[in-house]
UniProtKB/TrEMBL annotation:
Similarity comment: Belongs to the G-protein coupled receptor 1 family.
Domain G-protein coupled receptors family 1 profile positions: 38-294
Keyword match Nucleotidyltransferase: no
GO function term, MF aspect, one: G protein-coupled receptor activity
Transmembrane annotation, as ranges: 22-46, 58-81, 101-121, 141-159, 183-206, 233-255, 275-297
Principal cellular location given in the protein's record: membrane
Compartment(s) where it occurs, according to its Swiss-Prot or TrEMBL record: Cell membrane
Protein topology in the membrane: Multi-pass membrane protein
PROSITE patterns tied to this protein: G_PROTEIN_RECEP_F1_1, G_PROTEIN_RECEP_F1_2
Full protein name: G-protein coupled receptors family 1 profile domain-containing protein
């Protein structure tokens, strides 16, 4: 194949990343900013407005926390896109970025899967005793998961340093030729344990849940409410996983395979890189959609949310009333002064 057909390819089959369109950086910042606002508000409701947590609330709080931690790194990714995909923040920040990304994505998948299992057990096996229903056990489980996620993130950060490719600093890209074997192995580990396995568990839980819900007596108001709530949970979780995590894993897998076995196809690699960044933004939408789970999965969250809105509304009414009284008093004083 003639490498002159590809602008970034040279005789050593070097394929450097192309500058990404500035719209990617803008959309990335907007998505994660919205996710920060929604998850920040959700964390505030969980910590300040819900006084009695159950096991489901514990899982949902940890999901919101795993979604929120990615936001501080978003500007770095935006600058990376704008600066012609050239990493200029140093090796330590690159490793930190990799660790936080790992904690964020893996944590979101784990807690989303556990919420699915919890919902399945609570509805299908509501008469049976289970550890997933016990708040103390779930708290210990979440603490263990966070320890595991931090260790795994540190390991990934240690394994994947910054490299220089043709005077371009590269951080966590398939253009790092020295790391392609590591990327290849890590990708398939991630693809199985953080995509195929969770998706299988989710589909199993919610297929059984849908079957169980279809047998609920819908003649009663309570039965109809349970059915509607559970079916919404099914749709939201499947939609989130299918939209946010599946495309990212599929495109990344295709990218590392093409880079390892067809490295001369530079144009295809660059197209896959752009597609991966687009899927990365789709994965960020997960941060905006997860709060829907709290609305449909936690009655306490809905009550606390409504109380918060009422408090905000009462405060605004009081402030408006005080402001109007102040204005009227000022007008009365001016009238008195003018008469006198």
């Amino acid at each position: 194949m003639n490498t002159s057909d590809f602008p970034n390819a040279n005789h050593n089959e070097t394929c450097l990343p192309e500058p990404q369109h500035v719209s990617l950086a803008v959309i990335l910042c907007l998505v994660y900013l919205l996710g920060l606002l929604l998850n920040g508000f959700s964390l505030w409701v969980f910590t300040c407005r819900i006084h009695k947590w159950n096991s489901g609330a514990v899982l949902q709080f940890n999901l919101a926390l795993s979604d929120a931690i990615i936001t501080p790194l978003t500007p770095l990714m935006a600058v990376y896109f704008v600066k012609d995909s050239n990493w200029s923040f140093g090796d330590f920040v690159c490793r930190l970025k990799i660790a936080v990304l790992s904690i964020h994505f893996n944590g979101s998948v784990i807690f989303l899967t556990l919420i699915s299992v919890h919902r399945y057990v609570s509805v299908v096996h509501f008469n049976c005793s289970s550890l997933i229903k016990r708040k103390l056990f779930v708290k210990k489980l979440c603490a263990g998961i966070w320890c595991f996620l931090i260790i795994l993130g540190i390991f990934y950060g240690w394994l994947l340093p910054v490299t220089t490719e043709e005077n371009n600093g590269q951080c966590l890209t398939i253009h790092q030729k020295k790391l392609i074997d590591s990327y290849f192995i890590i990708n398939f580990v991630i693809f199985f344990f953080w995509c195929i396995l969770p998706l299988t568990i989710l589909v199993f839980c919610y297929s059984r849940l849908a079957s169980s819900v279809s047998r609920i007596n819908i003649n009663s108001t309570q039965g109809q409410s349970v059915k509607n709530k559970s079916m919404k949970m099914i749709g939201i979780c499947v939609f989130i996983f299918g939209l946010c995590f599946l495309p990212l894993n599929v495109v990344r897998t295709i990218g590392v395979v093409v880079k390892k076995y067809y490295s001369s196809k530079c144009r295809l690699i660059l197209q896959l890189q752009t597609a991966y960044y687009a899927c990365y933004i789709l994965a960020g939408i997960n941060c905006c959609l997860d709060p829907l789970i709290y609305f449909f999965g936690s009655r306490n969250f809905i009550k606390a949310f409504r109380r918060s809105l009422k408090i905000v509304g009462i405060r605004r009414n009081v402030e408006n009333k005080m402001e109007s009284e102040t204005v009227s008093q000022s007008v009365n004083r001016n009238v008195v002064y003018s008469v006198s």
